[in-house]
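In response to the reviewer comment on reproducibility (Comment 2.3), we provide here a single inverse folding case reported in full, input and output, so that an independent group could reproduce the run without further information from us. The structure tokens appear first.
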């Protein structure tokens, strides 16, 4: 009682096909220009399957972001270094920032919608709290003299979807954003040399 039943293999297969189809179509045409009918056709499943599973495009968008964020979480917890355990804290921070920027860049429209669903939504979602906690622990390891809680928020601030969308629209290349954030993080977290 109260425990979720395991997902059937065919249901999982269909869910993943729908998410992959949505990801492709959203990237090609933009989130607002893709219907659930088109996603169902691309995935090779019935429209009813998509509606029953996700409800609407917003539900599908949330599920797609959740799936991709869970993949990043798994890499952080059990993946190879430097993103996963076993690397110095500063290297793990910069690896996370790079990986998150890749995820954000691929799904910026979804992130903008998610983070602006209501006032302060970005800071209430579970993934933000997880990313914050992860960074705070690494900041504490790298520089115990810093306020780890605040510094983690400061490192996450440039990853706001609105800012990312605005910078990309202004011609900033992804590599430039990664380099800038990496340099800022390393400057902040590496101990000063005497």
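Designed residues, in position order:
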């Amino acid at each position: 009682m109260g425990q979720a039943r395991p997902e059937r293999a065919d249901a999982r297969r269909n869910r993943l096909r729908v998410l992959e189809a949505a990801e492709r179509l959203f990237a090609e045409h933009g989130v607002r220009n893709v219907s659930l009918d088109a996603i169902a056709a691309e995935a090779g499943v019935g429209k009813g399957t998509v509606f029953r599973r996700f409800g609407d495009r917003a539900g599908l968008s949330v599920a797609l972001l959740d799936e991709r964020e869970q993949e990043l979480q798994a890499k952080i917890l059990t993946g190879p270094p430097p993103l996963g355990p076993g690397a110095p804290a500063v290297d793990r921070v910069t690896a996370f920032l790079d990986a998150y920027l890749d995820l954000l860049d691929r799904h910026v429209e979804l992130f903008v919608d998610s983070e602006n669903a209501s006032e302060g939504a970005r800071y209430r979602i579970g993934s933000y709290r997880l990313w914050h906690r992860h960074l705070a622990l690494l900041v504490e390891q790298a520089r115990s003299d810093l306020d780890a809680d605040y510094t983690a928020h400061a490192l996450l601030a440039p990853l706001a979807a609105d800012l990312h969308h605005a910078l990309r629209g202004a011609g900033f290349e992804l590599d430039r954003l990664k380099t800038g954030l990496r340099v800022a993080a390393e400057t902040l977290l590496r101990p000063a040399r005497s």
